[in-house]
Amino acid sequence: RHSFCILNSVALGTGARRFHVSAAFSAKAKVAMSRFEPGSSVNYEKMHENINIVRKRLNRPLTLSEKIVYGHLDNPAGQEIERGRTYLRLRPDRVAMQDATAQMAMLQFISSGLPKVAVPSTIHCDHLIEAQIGAAQDLQRAKDVNQEVYNFLATAAAKYGVGFWKPGSGIIHQIVLENYAYPGVMLIGTDSHTPNGGGLGSISIGVGGADAVDVMAGIPWELKCPKVIGVRLTGTLSGWTSPKDVILKVAGILTVKGGTGAIVEYHGPGVDSVSCTGMATICNMGAEIGATTSLFPYNHRMKTYMEKTGRGEIAALADQFKDDLVPDKGCEYDQLIEINLSELKPHINGPFTPDLAHPVSDIGAIAKKSGWPLEVKVGLIGSCTNSSYEDMGRAASLAKQALDKGLKCKAQFTVTPGSEQIRATIERDGYTKILSDVGGVVLANACGPCIGQWDRKDVKKGEKNTIVTSYNRNFTARNDANPATHAFVTSPEIVTALALAGTLNFNPETDYLTAPSGEKFKLEPPTGDELPSRDFDPGQDTYQQQHNIKETDFYNRLQLLEPFDKWHGKDLEDLRVLIKVKGKCTTDHISAAGPWLKFRGHLDNISNNLLIGAVNIENDAVNKVKNQLTGEYEGVPDVARHYKANGVNWLVVGDENYGEGSSREHAALEPRHLGGRAIIVKSFARIHGQFLHRRGKNANIKLCAKYSSVCNFFSVLFMHTETNLKKQGLLPLTFADPSDYDKIHPDDKISITGLKSLSPGKPLTAVIKHSDGSQDRISLNHTFNETQIEWFQAGSALNRMKELQ
């Protein structure tokens, strides 16, 4: 047990439910957004000035993405700018953290020694609520089970000037859309689906927990200048086709890697037929194609949404600066995709990957041919991707048609409101009753089954079955920890229709349902209001106005960080192969979510999930590897712990796109904690952008001298799998020849040589020692820059920070 003491707790906020405008700043186009934290503002004038400087320098039309990104440059006059090559130093406006990642972020911020966050920041309690029975019971259980974590986050938030949204308030991305996002803002969030904010014309980027610390330290944040993929929309959405179908189609085109290093920018005349929350849906799932972020241009849909959510003054300012919030005519994209919304058909993607796209009209035949279970066991609507008022209304319109015929869902059916505001409003307007009457169970305002927080009882683990969701991600075992579950992602409307039919072999555009009376009927296309005719009902006040806890206790959920050991100055000799991974290895395979989320603040406990979802090439099994010291087959973390206890260092061998998925720093922390030294793969995922170059030693950091060394440490972006590994003192390496993957056997010993002369661009050598006495020598590439080499030598980036203090 440890105690984290809180002194000088501060009151946060004014108790207001909405933003207010300071007339004194309005004349300068600066709107005070005192949604509970000081210093938050909208400053279009500064962005406008920066855009003009950059436009004159580049002498060409700019995309919207470029306007907002370059509009946040720390030095627009001197910054070298070339898409896909140079590195930008940026000044983001704010930070948002969900409770699972906020634990490690706040623990690291505490270690930095900084007294307060330098930019407006918020914590959102949404990831730790498990779906079991229903909203009220599940929420109360979560408060009881997670008390240690919630107390720590609430107390740390109060001490360091961070806003705190209590459990039950809703999903981080919905809260951000309702309160903090606006056209032109640059927002950093510790969740891969932060790009949801692009539905309000913002640059919202999902990052790791340490990235949040960078930005909260108030120093320039570095990002490789993104390329821009344009998606031109024409035509009009109608009938069964929804905004979700746009991104399902784009995912099918670009695949899970197609957006790497790029911002996806939607534009064209078809944009105006998409609601603001529909745009957010499209941007949200852009994470699944590897995009840095996605966004839409400012239009009347966004204006109306901001007015309905209490931000009319910001909308009025956005009107004044509209030219900065849309792309220039004649701007050029690195890649252009065109989609005619009038011709787009409803889609369903999966199973096991979000880029396997099918028209709904074909999925029945494809499932039969592929041997996928046709019976739909559960339909799940909601999540951060699809839980808007419009989404719930369209789903309810279908449920009402079925109820009118006396029909209820054949499959189990769950409903997850995205926020307390959505929950209260759909309850007031009757949608909740309709969805419940048709067989739906309303879950808590939280992530729930979307991230694996689902205590599922209807099937046994290993039992082959099908579920359909309106979520964004459907990797193996993602939702229910069952690797045999075939999960498909689609729109809430299609989920509802398939839950009613109980089978994938149902096309609602052409097929009929059968009522209990025997009458056959066809569902009419869904309808639903974009926004409530009355104002939103805010529901219960779930924002913490002040907090006076003096101390929070650490038991088994939180653990203060201990420094990793320094590099011993020699080559790494005779590393054991902990596991040679076969095929896809996402962050869900490396560090599973679901029930493990409760240990996100306790490194030793959560390390018991290390690589338990990865497939061992030796036996095609998960979480079953051979302990080369004992000859026994055990779980991956068990073998890792045994090696560590016996002084044996180890490495992991992986396939293509290692680390695809969430920006999960635990996928780097855990292997380092359990004695790992290197990860050797064919390629690493870069789902949230590219690694960064070194900051100059003489960089101008506008912080007091007392914290200059801390700021220098936090100046390098902690953005994707490869950089995450570097920050923890591991060696992320790639095969110079991908076919060398085949040369490594599970019982080999591997030595990594050349470390004494480790330098940028210089490959390392691996000596593979086979059990028969033979050897192979292969070349390994790396992307370390000079600062990152210092991290490795110090044992971690945190260690290096402390050396500099």
Automatic annotation (TrEMBL):
InterPro entries per the UniProt record, alphabetical: Acnase/IPM_dHydase_lsu_aba_1/3, Acoase/IPM_deHydtase_lsu_aba, Aconitase/3IPM_dehydase_swvl, Aconitase/IPM_isomerase, Aconitase_4Fe-4S_BS, Aconitase_4Fe-4S_dom, Aconitase_dom2, Aconitase_mito-like
Catalytic activity from the UniProt record: citrate = D-threo-isocitrate
Compartments, as annotated in UniProt: Mitochondrion
Keywords, in A-Z order: 4Fe-4S, Iron, Iron-sulfur, Lyase, Metal-binding, Mitochondrion, Transit peptide, Tricarboxylic acid cycle
Cellular component terms per the entry's GO annotation: cytosol; mitochondrion
EC main group: lyase
Main location group: mitochondrion
EC code(s) of this entry: 4.2.1.3
Residues covered by the Aconitase/3-isopropylmalate dehydratase large subunit alpha/beta/alpha domain: 66-502
Domain Aconitase A/isopropylmalate dehydratase small subunit swivel: start-end pairs: 577-691
Cofactor note: Binds 1 [4Fe-4S] cluster per subunit.
Pathway assigned to this chain's UniProt record: Carbohydrate metabolism; tricarboxylic acid cycle; isocitrate from oxaloacetate: step 2/2
Domain of life (superkingdom): Eukaryota
Cofactors required: [4Fe-4S] cluster
UniProt-listed CDD domains: AcnA_Mitochondrial
GO molecular function ontology, one term from the record: metal ion binding
UniProt cross-references to PROSITE patterns, sorted A to Z: ACONITASE_1, ACONITASE_2
Family per similarity comment: Belongs to the aconitase/IPM isomerase family.
Database matches in NCBIfam families: aconitase_mito, PRK07229.1
Annotated protein name in UniProt: Aconitate hydratase, mitochondrial
Species whose genome carries this gene: Amphiprion ocellaris
Organism classification: Eukaryota, Metazoa, Chordata, Craniata, Vertebrata
